[in-house]
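Field: sequence (string)
Field: structure_tokens (string)

Example rows 1 and 2, in order.
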Amino acid sequence: MKKISYLLVLLAFNCFAKASGYPTDISGNYDCHGTEYDTRAAFHCTMRLTKTNMTYAADVRCTDGSIYSGTAIYNSSTHSFASLAVNPKEAKETGVALADVSKNNEINSVWTYLNQSTLGHTHCVKQ
């Protein structure tokens, strides 16, 4: 009986999560703008998220010529993800981000480079 109750709770939760309006798959192209907090430097990038089994590959290209590639882990229950990305031409530009995904496929994130004090905020809109 406990197994059946547990299964029903899981099924109800899964139905609720899908009906909530939040995306279950965040794959796609995004237009992103942001600011580094300490320098107040603004940036504009495009981001492509591609589902790769249980994670997402992230490909980011910025208008200043910077390119980042990384991996994201999306939690569809909390509508958030964590990611790690690196600029292959500048290893010191390896960073981590925490992001929230909205019902309308917008992503807001805060990020930092490893071993540095730089913080940034990014807002992305799905294209």
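Row 2 begins here:
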Amino acid sequence: MQVRKIGRRMRKNYAPEEISAIRAGVPFASVDQARRVRRKLAGDENFKRWLDNRIQFGQIADIKGDWEMYRRYSAYNKLFSPYLGKSIVDELGEMAWRKSSKKRKKVPLEILDDGAGHGVFLEHIKHLMGEHKVPVRTTAVVLYASEDLKARKEEGSVDEIIENPVETFVPRRRYDAIFSMLGGIEYSLMHFTRETVLKYAHALNAGGIAVIGLDIKTSYRQQMEEFKRRVIKSFEKRGFKADFYHNPENKAEHLPQDVLIIRRIR
């Protein structure tokens, strides 16, 4: 890990959580993406109102309880495994083997779920990886923590809960795998989606992966191919490999139609 010297000027210009992230080894590129958005949104009353509406919408969905059925490992795996070429468990198992071989000891995989809901997916993945003797550390990023999510933290199936809008969230550490299925990235302010995805991507460990399921608005479909080329090229310049996939049949099964997979090469 790169040693970060925190000078007086940095302590003056960076918020405490940003300095903590830098000290934990989070790349400046990731922290700075968050800083830029935070500055733009600071004191923005429209953003505050929009955020309140988002929280109310989520609370109503929680009361109904119908959303969590799509937060299980089986739903994530059904969506993502065709594009990974293997199951999520197998993908993470291979990643754990490479990481442990490099460190010459078993090191926990750092797994983050963006828009984790009640933490069902993280609970499932921790159990499944445990069956393979692979230790994992799970992080849930949510707008607000439900009682079910807090209970899972008490039980140990979720290690950390971060209550923060995805637009202004600062990664606490580097992650090996980041998942987002109709999570904060899907519901982020449209003009900050690029910054949010880049922030997550830069927070990946080398060899790490970000797997994102979202529904790109129909009005953008005609420009989709050009959009894909620009995104893929943009990530390649920064040391990533990115691929976009579209499957309209997913809609009938309440799954996202679009999948973006980003791998950190270096």
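free_text_note (row 2): The mean pLDDT is 83.
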